[in-house]
Amino acid sequence: MRMRPTLTWTPTEDLPPSTTDLRPVADALGAGGVLVLSGAGISTESGIPDYRGEGGSLSRHTPMLYQDFTGSAQARRRYWARSHLGWRAFGRARPNAGHRAVAAFGRHGLLAGTITQNVDGLHQAAGSDAVVELHGSLDRVVCLGCGSFSPRRELARRLEEANPDFAPVAAGINPDGDADLSEDQVGDFRVVPCVDCGGVLKPDVVFFGEAVSPRRVEHCRELVRAADALLVLGSSLTVMSGLRFVRQAAQSGKRVLIINRDATRGDRHAVARVDLPLGAALTTLADGLGISLDDETAPVA
Fold first, then answer.
1. Catalytic residue among 61, 135, 219, 269
2. What would the mean pLDDT of 213-235 be, rounded to a whole number?
């Protein structure tokens, strides 16, 4: 019997109460050496829903599982039809105040790095450098046959040519770029193969049920070891791919701080969980540190 990945989490113990006091986060940022770990919640203000918050996509949508994608041509047809439509909406998304604040903190030398669980590229669009994309990026496509990579925009062009009359209206867009379509709307959508070997194409993202590469995990662990504190932004930490870094930081005596509207699986490891909207909270932090979100000048020595 195939095991299904963990998609939801319910607390089984009393968790520390949340706070609206940003001073612990401000103190950590002021001291520098903060490693950011961001989740889907930082992109909601850009119009991309999260998975588990109020109105999150898991309430109406089950994400594509790796085993289903690799094992079923019909599952791939359904995924690519939905993703092709969702990709257009993702392309219209723009960084919000939260993304710009993280980029500004980095420009002013306050961060030890940024790890994101998101696949939307909005941290980079806001100006953040050397972002580790823990779960990959929708901007790239990989062939499961020959391993070659190609730009998503090239695949989008090929899918447009193969499906010139495909123009359904989606019920919603999800954090993984997958649009909500019925089977009737998917219809006989045509999937295109790898141009190099004719193999199966997959977005270069980590699906639910798929493991993050050991090399990427170790790189993130090195960032945690080098950081003085870990700041989690907009993640429920339900899945182990992000939670393991929270546990690592806490076990090594580093401060863990979380800004998230709901309880998280990492709350018991944190110095504080701040229950505030991310855009407003990060803007307030930047203002308190005398940092303009759109100031691209180098930090003062």
1. 135
2. 97
